[in-house]
Specification:
Rhomboid-like fold; 9 helices
Length: 238
């Protein structure tokens, strides 16, 4: 299922979501430009889980790089499909969460979700030396917050049957709930150390952990004053 839009109109302009989206696109262009070289761009800005527990790495690259890469890695993506899927989910669900949290709180929320997801994935995979990158953990946090705040919303989605698209409306409770269950099952299936020759893969543990982090951080960062209930819009199905 591919989300297209939701039924909650945003009351404010999601400047932070737009900024994150723009930065991810620009960074991906830079990745493609430097891919013609030795790949040092990714190695410099991606997050390496083993660095967290390696004294040699701390002495070699420094703690600023170790912890800074937890943030910079959130703006890197493995390929165009990876980038497009993450940015689509941010586009559909990020504006409403930012609307409810406020711009500054949302920026902090987003980055903390990404950090929590990366640390959790590092622990679940036994701190491998394979670099991690992508906004998936932070996006999962956005989904967790959306699940709490807007579970009664509807998500217009497209399902491809071979090459024929079918448009359907799915309750956010079901759409996000199924997504979380799928990520959790895959995370449990892939639990354990990552072989050095394993190559690139999907960090399902980061998705599940980011989702849970989003729910928990929402409780801490949500403004105490009550907001009027968001208006839910229904469409006629095409």
């Amino acid at each position: 299922m591919i989300p297209i839009r939701d039924s909650i109109p945003s009351r404010t302009t999601p400047y932070v979501s737009y900024t994150i989206l723009g930065l991810c696109v620009l960074v991906h262009i830079a990745q493609q430009w430097t891919r013609l070289g030795d790949g040092s761009f990714l190695l410099q800005w991606a997050f390496v889980p083993s660095y967290l527990i390696s004294l040699a790495a701390w002495l070699q690259v420094g703690p600023v790089h170790v912890f800074g890469s937890l943030i910079t890695s959130q703006f890197l993506h493995g390929d165009l499909l990876h980038l497009a899927s993450n940015m689509l989910f941010l586009w559909v669900f990020g504006d409403n969460v930012e609307d409810r949290l406020g711009h500054a709180r949302f920026a902090v929320f987003y980055l903390l979700c990404g950090i929590a997801a990366a640390v959790a994935q590092s622990l679940l995979s036994w701190f491998p030396e394979i670099p991690m990158l992508g906004a998936s953990g932070a996006i999962a946090g956005v989904l967790g917050a959306y699940f709490v705040l807007f579970r009664t919303a509807w998500v217009r989605s497209v399902i491809l049957f071979f090459i024929i698209p079918f448009f359907i409306e799915i309750p956010a409770l079901i759409f996000i709930g199924l997504w979380f269950i799928l990520q959790t099952v895959n995370a449990l299936y892939t639990l354990g150390p990552v072989p050095a020759s394993g190559g690139p893969g999907v960090a399902f543990g980061a998705h599940a952990a980011g989702f849970i982090a989003g729910i928990l951080l929402l409780k801490l960062l949500l403004p105490s004053r009550r907001h009027p209930h968001a208006r839910v819009v229904r469409w006629e199905v095409d």
